[in-house]
């Protein structure tokens, strides 16, 4: 969440590429690659799902807040969204997807 709080896209991408276990990294890259395709302008015209909308929908699933406190969960959503936006906009998935 620090990468999102600092609005650091490079750090968000580094976390995925270097800190995740291999299987988690591969699944995350595959999902982000799919979301990047969904977010292309020609697809947005049909599905109405831009990067921010995709981040809102998928952020809580990938970055589950460990707290049970509704206030904490609500506050963490903006950082989950920012982190997902970083990945959808900036993660280079072209060489990583097999």
* Overall average residue pLDDT: 88
Structural class: mainly alpha
The helix-strand sequence is HHHHHH
Which strand-content bin applies to the residues?
Answer: under 5%
Gyration radius from CA atoms, angstroms: 13 Å
Low-confidence stretches: none
Note the overall shape.
globular
Give the total of beta strands.
0
Measured distance between first and last alpha carbons: 28 Å
Q: How many DSSP H or I helices?
A: 6
How do the strands and helices of this protein lay out in sequence?
Layout: H1 2-5, H2 9-19, H3 22-38, H4 41-47, H5 51-62, H6 70-90
Helix pairs in contact: 2-6, 5-6
Model description:
This protein is mainly alpha-helical and 98 residues long. It is 73% helix and 0% strand. It contains 6 helices and no strands. The longest helix has 21 residues, at 70-90. It is globular and about 40 Å long. 23% of the residues are buried. The model has no long low-confidence stretch (mean pLDDT 88).
Short structural description:
The chain has 98 residues and is mostly helical. 73% of the residues lie in helices and 0% in strands. The mean pLDDT is 88.
